[in-house]
Amino acid sequence: xxxxxxxxxxxxxxxxxxxxxxxxxxxxxxxxxxxxxxxxxxxxxxxxxxxxxxxxxxxxxxxxxxxxxxxxxxxxxxxxxxxxxxxxxxxxxxxxxxxxxxxxxxxxxxxxxxxxxxxxxxxxxxxxxxxxxxxxxxxxxxxxxxxxxxxxxxxxxxxxxxxxxxxxxxxxxxxxxxxxxxxxxxxxxxxxxxxxxxxxxxxxxxxxxxxxxxxxxxxxxx
Amino acid sequence: xxxxxxxxxxxxxxxxxxxxxxxxxxxxxxxxxxxxxxxxxxxxxxxxxxxxxxxxxxxxxxxxxxxxxxxxxxxxxxxxxxxxxxxxxxxxxxxxxxxxxxxxxxxxxxxxxxxxxxxxxxxxxxxxxxxxxxxxxxxxxxxxxxxxxxxxxxxxxxxxxxxxxxxxxxxxxxxxxxxxxxxxxxxxxxxxxxxxxxxxxxxxxxxxxxxxxxxxxxxxxxxxxxxxxxxxxxxxxxxxxxxxxxxxxxxxxxxxx
Amino acid sequence: xxxxxxxxxxxxxxxxxxxxxxxxxxxxxxxxxxxxxxxxxxxxxxxxxxxxxxxxxxxxxxxxxxxxxxxxxxxxxxxxxxxxxxxxxxxxxxxxxxxxxxxxxxxxxxxxxxxxxxxxxxxxxxxxxxxxxxxxxxxxxxxxxxxxxxxxxxxxxxxxxxxxxxxxxxxxxxxxxxxxxxxxxxxxxxxxxxxxxxxxxxxxxxxxxxxxxxxxxxxxxxxxxxxxxxxxxxxxxxxxxxxxxxxxxxxxxxxxxxxxxxxxxxxxxxxxxxxxxxxxxxxxxxxxxxxxxxxxxxxxxxxxxxxxxxxxxxxxxxxxxxxxxxxxxxxxxxxxxxxxxxxxxxxxxxxxxxxxxxxxxxxxxxxxxxxxxxxxxxxxxxxxxxxxxxxxxxx
Lengths: 222, 257, 395
Fold this sequence. Notes:
The complex is a heterotrimer of chains A (222), B (257) and C (395).
Chain A lengths: L2 H33 L13 H22 L3 H34 L6 H24 L6 H35 L4 H33 L7
Helix pairs in contact in A: 1-2, 1-3, 1-4, 2-3, 3-6, 4-5, 4-6, 5-6
Chain B lengths: L7 E12 L2 E12 L3 E5 L6 H8 L9 E9 L2 E2 L7 H7 E4 L10 H12 L6 H13 L3 H4 L12 H13 L5 E5 L7 H14 L4 E5 L3 H7 L2 E6 L2 E7 H6 L4 H7 L5
Parallel strand pairs in B: 3-8, 3-9, 6-7, 7-8
Antiparallel strand pairs in B: 1-2, 1-4, 4-5, 9-10
Chain C lengths: L1 H10 L7 H37 L4 E11 L1 H5 L7 H4 L4 H5 L1 H7 L6 E8 L2 H7 L8 H12 L3 E5 L2 H4 L12 H32 L4 H13 L4 H15 L7 H26 L2 H9 L4 H29 L3 H5 L20 H9 L5 H31 L4
Antiparallel strand pairs in C: 1-2, 1-3
Helix pairs in contact in C: 2-18, 10-13, 10-15, 10-17, 11-13, 12-13, 13-15, 14-15, 15-18, 17-18
């Protein structure tokens, strides 16, 4: 492999990793805020879609150039194509994380049944965070077995979020039927929590793409 | 022309070339940059090899060739009357498509020209120059124990690297490569490409290749020739990602040539 | 029959009905070419057999053991050195050599020694069973001597150490060999450098225009000119115009040089042309000039071909008779020349002369001469092949 090619590949991977880590960090911040019951801290989540888009466009252009100049094949080709799709997913994930923080903070108030909410929101957030973190960590993984393990873990966490979300959805709907005047706030909380579920979905998508890059087969968007 | 901080090593101005009555190169003008790899691409018969051979005046060996225009290297037009073509070729070396080592020993292959030009005297100086040239072309470890064996006993890829060592032994400033890897297998090709990337730190490299992907991999600048004209000359990235000229695009995408 | 054919067609996807005829035609052709080869071999073998058969007797010659008297009388007239009975049976030429024998061994003076004396050619021919002119009593006497063991066949050193002679038993090839060698040395010294340099100029330095093409056509034509015309040329220019000595190796060598020149030029050009152009390109690419490229790179590679061509030209020249006859090398030369300006003869001319002599012994001497000439030519060609193989550079 020629040196300039190696350098470019390394660069692309690192930049994608950085975006992923930024999103993960914001989720960790949110988790700490929820665990410490300091919901105000959610305003510290500093992700803007605009900035993320800028970075992902840069990475996309580097990927296009690399494809044009080095005509990669097999694993290299699969990797680059996966990265191209992952940048998209990461921007949306960042968007989702930001939306969650904003909406949750806006609608949270002591008028609501905060215990119940937090009882489900925290594990939901934890799972979403873990799934995204594990997914991003597959980027640096080279061992095929580890990749399989992490892939499965992501799927497991994602199904957890599905279950948790269903449960909290049921409970909140019950609460809404009891307190119709707080329905808007409850709906907004639900919306915010829905974002977390989306994050887990995207984590699965990312893991899928990285798995395809490693193992091959057909590319399947989930 | 491209705006950049690069230093121009070879300035080609309005170069026209005729084989008897047939014109082969039409008004070529370009600035080729120092310590960069410039690739010349284009379909067969487009004039890229002819152009390359103008840079070191190898076309002067063909009697019916007539050349108009100028090629200015280090502020001197090499086609001026007071410039001896032999001295031009000392500064501008050439590596050919078919590896063509002399039927002498490996040592003699590398040392012959420097001794004749008086760059070194026989003895330790010469030995050091041979060793240095072979190290730089990545061949030293493979041949250091058999310097007396004939150059033709090496494999194709090794022979080509020997030819490169022979060329850099006369301490040129520019190295011209005429399809240096088209006669080699993929592994040897990769070795030569990696070597080119290393050599560009010390030399200016102009290479003709009919393999576009090779140009994409190694060249900093690419020039596209078609039917004797220079169609587009730009950074490789631009040529391969968004070329300005439609002919260039058609060639790159394989729609002709 | 048809059914079987159809079966063949059905079972065998590779069946082709025209093949049988084609294979038969090919086999016939093969037989025909083989027959031609065998015919050529038979012809050659017959020739070789015949010549060698005729030549072998020449390498042994009869000697008679008798008394030879060394005294004043015998030195005066050497016929008196032997007994009267032997006088006609012993070689007159050998007797004439007695004074020089005495010079080597002065102590022989006034003594009589028993030694082997060369027999007369008629005795030798009689012993070998060929046509002879011995009388009855001579035959009886010879048979008597034979039964007493006083006649022996010894190796014919005279053939290789003495020059031509009117006396058959004393005729040898030596002066012709020396003449040939001197002539060919001159030929090579003149033809080789001029030929190779011409080839180098025509191939490397001259430009391709009408004039050089004209020269090239004419050189090729020269190679096909009948050799006797070169003899006339030599006569007119070297002997008449320059006044060089007639029938000398100098003139012979120069004439043969003119004849060999086209061959050397053509083969050298082919050898130079065979050097791949990539070597020259590599040389020029390194900033070498024409002399350096040609002398140090092209010439060494072309050298085996040049050498082979020259040796073949040399072998060719060695067997040339016609031009040398015209310039006079057919004269009777008993003594070997010591300088290139002295009169000499060459081997083929000598054989030509011997073939016309009446005495029977010359027949076997001619055949022996042919064998010697053939041996030399074959060795030269073998040397050419060995040298070519040795210096061949593998690509």
